[in-house]
Design the sequence.
């Protein structure tokens, strides 16, 4: 399994650099193993048992990675939380998951105390006051312990990642050790990961893309990951031009910024053997712009929180613009009629369904929503529409579910609508995504104000910031007298998009 492969690298190449934040000390594979073992010991001393949920809300830093690897190593369930989540969202995740431990940055202590004081299953909050500490100093006074027996049950849950539903509060997707191992082995083969690869890691680590596809990918290969705490296009372009890196993974918003920064100049980034794009659709102009500006043909791939990666353009072979490529090794994909779930012939648009050992276990304590996520014969309903070409390439064609993807992050309108409806001046509302060159889509809200209520866009957005991560907050608020609805009273969002997105 993934952890066994990582343990082998730590034993076989202890002096090789595993991780290094830009401008900080490197951490070798030997130091990584020691830091993770000390953290595992620390967790066990706190009473953390296999199956306990360990929630971590930290900036992208080494302690975040140590807690992640230590929690999964002792059989606990790692729950990464976006640092942008405000208290209201945090309270929900900690309560719903029954987190046994919550790890936060010392700087957030006053914001967090009121939340953790009244959570029934909550036990301990640890504060981290040096988030970018180096490996050798981490818990250095803690007794380093023997190596731990690694989890051996592939069906044991390793991580819980919250992903929202189109009609409900966020649900905890349980990802097992077997899921992680299957997907990372599949990507290792498909993307040709090598021992001598050097990854430039600029993604957040609270999502599958940055934590599993990128970081696990590098560690599973015994490669080196150089990490930036946040994404800055100028820094990234300088680093990519340095010749030091062989792999880069980003979302279209990042690639757009790099392309815009190049502004008509030419760069030769062909020394990078793999540059991927995902988490949102890669616009055609960006695909061709990269070829012209950077001498790179981006490899577009398709995944989701519940599965990791499913489809990918080939490392060697045609990378087709606008397509998400072919099923990865071990992955089965099909296109079905969303109503009958009968497979459709090539060329016809239907729902993309996925099967394989990488598909998640279930939604935490949500048996009904788990059942809804799978077809009668056990395939995962992705909620994405697409078609299969006769040569096996898949192209996505929109979404069956109400979803906005902005800067590579999923925003489910019902979540935003729930918060908007709590505002005293809002009588009714509808949230949609409008196309945006930089973000892919931006969140836009149409609001019918209560009679006589005085409300303005700034007031509404400030209210939303209290209850939602900033990226979910509407970028535009339009006050309307009515919302387009069908005979059943269901708001017609497609019509609203036509009216509001220009
Ligand atoms: C930040 N802002 C955003 C977003 N991110 N607004 C809309 N959409 C966003 N995604 C807002 C902030 O709230 C802030 O607003 C302002 O932009 C600047 O914030 P900052 O964090 O500085 O933004 P940024 O640095 O410009 O962020 C852009 C970004 C970031 C680097 C592209 O969005 C990002 O890291 N995206 C990657 C997300 C990701 O990892 N997705 C993978 C999900 P204000 O100033 O008002 O506060 S996993 C997945 O999708 C599956 C598994 C898959 O296939 O990979």
Sequence:
């Amino acid at each position: 399994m993934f952890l066994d492969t990582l343990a082998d690298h730590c034993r076989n190449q202890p002096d090789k650099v595993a991780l290094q934040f830009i401008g900080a000390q490197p951490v070798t594979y030997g130091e990584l193993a020691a830091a993770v073992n000390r953290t595992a010991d620390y967790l066990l001393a706190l009473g953390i048992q296999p199956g306990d949920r360990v929630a971590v809300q930290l900036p992208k830093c080494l302690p975040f990675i140590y807690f992640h690897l230590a929690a999964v190593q002792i059989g606990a369930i790692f729950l990464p939380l976006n640092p942008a989540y405000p208290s209201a969202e945090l309270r929900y995740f900690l309560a719903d998951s029954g987190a046994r431990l919550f790890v936060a940055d010392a700087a957030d202590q006053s914001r967090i105390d009121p939340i953790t004081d009244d959570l029934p299953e909550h036990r301990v909050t640890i504060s981290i006051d040096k988030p970018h500490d180096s490996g050798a100093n981490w818990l250095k006074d803690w007794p380093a312990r023997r190596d731990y027996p690694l989890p051996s049950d592939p069906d044991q849950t390793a991580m819980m990642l919250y992903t929202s539903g189109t009609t409900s509060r966020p649900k905890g997707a349980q990802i097992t050790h077997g899921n992680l191992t299957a997907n990372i082995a599949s990507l290792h083969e498909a993307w040709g990961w090598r021992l001598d690869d050097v990854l430039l890691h600029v993604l957040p680590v609270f999502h599958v893309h940055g934590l599993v596809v990128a970081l696990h990918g590098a560690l599973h290969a015994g490669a080196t990951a150089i990490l930036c705490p946040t994404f800055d296009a100028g820094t990234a372009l300088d680093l990519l031009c340095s010749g030091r890196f062989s792999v880069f993974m980003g979302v279209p918003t990042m690639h757009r910024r790099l392309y815009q920064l190049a502004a008509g100049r030419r760069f030769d980034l062909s020394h990078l053997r793999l540059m991927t794009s995902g988490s949102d659709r890669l616009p055609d102009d960006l695909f061709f712009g990269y070829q012209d500006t950077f001498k790179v043909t981006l490899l577009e791939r398709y995944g989701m929180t519940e599965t990791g990666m499913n489809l990918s353009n080939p490392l060697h072979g045609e990378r087709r613009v606008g397509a998400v490529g072919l099923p990865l090794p071990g992955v089965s994909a099909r296109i079905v009629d969303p109503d009958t779930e009968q497979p459709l012939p090539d060329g016809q648009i239907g729902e993309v369904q996925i099967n394989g050992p990488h598909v998640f276990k279930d939604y935490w304590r949500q048996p009904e929503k788990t059942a809804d996520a799978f077809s009668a014969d056990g395939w995962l309903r992705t909620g994405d529409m697409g078609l299969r070409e006769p040569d096996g390439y898949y192209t996505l064609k929109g979404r069956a579910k109400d979803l906005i993807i902005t800067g590579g992050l999923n925003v489910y309108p019902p979540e935003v609508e729930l918060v908007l409806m709590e505002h005293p001046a809002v009588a009714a509302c509808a949230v949609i995504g409008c196309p945006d060159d930089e973000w892919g889509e931006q969140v836009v809200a149409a609001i019918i104000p209560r009679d006589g209520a005085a409300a303005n866009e700034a007031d509404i957005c400030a209210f939303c910031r209290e209850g939602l991560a900033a990226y979910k907050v509407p970028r535009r608020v339009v006050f309307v007298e009515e919302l387009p609805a069908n005979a059943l009273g269901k708001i017609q969002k497609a019509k609203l998009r036509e009216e509001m997105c220009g």
